[in-house]
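User: Structure please.
Assistant: Input sequence and predicted structure:
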Amino acid sequence: MQTIGLKSSRRDLRPLLAGAAATAACVGALFALLDLSSPVRGPLTLFFLVAAPAAAVAHWLRGLDLWGRALASVSAAIVVDLLVAQAMLALHVWSVRGGVAAVAGISSAIFLSALARR
């Protein structure tokens, strides 16, 4: 009689973790855009502001190894966030909703340009 063993590896958990991260980022963006009050609004919105541009830039960096791509993507996400904040402050149009919407729009444009390149 043969027993069925469950083999768990890191590769099996990657889609699950990616889905959980995408869900958390979307919930953070919705909390900020709909102005809902919650104790997790701040951390989830901050996670969205870093994860959305990082995921979009990661598609441009397919040739790098995992750690190099992660470091470059997070660095680019911080640059995008700072540029959006600087532009909004310079134009005197700062708002949380506007910042989240601007970062979402820029991230979408970066991601779609990476898809169009392929």
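The chain has a mean pLDDT of 90.
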